[in-house]
Amino acid sequence: MKVSILGSTGSIGTQALEVVEDLKGIYNIEVTAVSASSNIKLLEEQIRKFKPKYAAVFDENRARELKTAVSDTTCRVVSGQEGLCFIAAEADCDMVLSSIVGFAGLVPTMRAISAGKDIALANKETLVTAGRLFMDAVSEHNVRLLPVDSEHCAIFQSLQAGTHSELKKILLTASGGPFFGRTAADLVNVKKEQALKHPNWSMGAKITIDSATLMNKGLEVLEASHLFNVGIDDIEVVVQRESIIHSMVEFRDKSVIAQLSVPSMKHPIQYAFTYPERLPSPDKSVDFAALSSLSFARPDEHTFRCLTLAKAAGKAGGIMPTVMNAANEAAVAKFLRDEIGFLDIADMVETAMQKFDNIKNPTLDDIIAVNDEVRNQLK
Ligand code: NAD
Ligand code: MG
Question: What predicted TM-score, i.e. pTM, was given to this entire model?
Fold first, then answer.
């Protein structure tokens, strides 16, 4: 199998390369292309280790530096949005791992689908903003779409126990994040260092903040609704503090099927790479006796308003999820620059959603234009 990795220097990208190493000799994966926004030091290490044919760097200056640094190798360095689209669509690969963070992943991922590449999808913002166009393209080009988000991989696995018409609802689990049990008053002055301390997962900064606000769960509700063709109201968020149950599905006979494993993103990445096969993994087994209990709760949507806002955007449909997502990306960036407080993130998302008129059935150009407009206004 040949894979091209969009975002190979990130949390998902580096773990995907570990999976490639883990599977050596059992299931050989050739890495055709690697890519980054600007971290050329790590990209150079990856080029020397995995010997890809191509490397794409979004930042043009950094791309030039990398070209010089790896001039003794056969790796061809491409740059900018065009470079990312090239390694998504033209590079000789069977599968593209879409693991760029945020809206920036949308166009390259759509190009990969049009080129007939199977997609391992980590980038949830892509489905949130362009879900209908994305899913239509997947069926039009007859490509396989394997979810890498751990909850969606769990749902995908659990759904194998029944048919779509037998499905009653999806139970999407959430860890609750670092601020579980806190009230809004407790959260007024929290700093990014506190928000960046996730209890169960080590991830990139943007998704870690989204996990603290519960926006991540909101984005995941929309992601699940597109991936599995279910209504927003048929997806119930359940807090599962230990992150051992990665999600569940309930069938109409009230039977609940769940997928459990230790919290490791290498599981969904490996399953996406080797599907439909299950291959050995170096991950630890769940030690139920040591765990002794699993705890559940309802999410507190009063305190964590981003979850409610995301669901409202999903129900409104059209361009609203794009507005919501763009406002959230802008707000999280501001929070990470210490320019706004933690609770301002939800306020910024809500204000943007109130301000923008909806567009039914937006085209990809509409989605790109509105994303730019919202982000420019909230810079
Ligand atoms: P990260 O910040 O660690 O890595 C992001 C990657 O994208 C890096 O390689 C970076 O160079 C690249 N990138 C960023 N902006 C870019 C741009 N404009 N052009 C080209 N490349 C760009 O993020 P992450 O935590 O790996 O998350 C990646 C995606 O996967 C996100 O959409 C996230 O929601 C999703 N996801 C992550 C996890 C996780 O455990 N980290 C779990 C589930 C889903
Ligand atoms: Mg997830």
Answer: 0.98
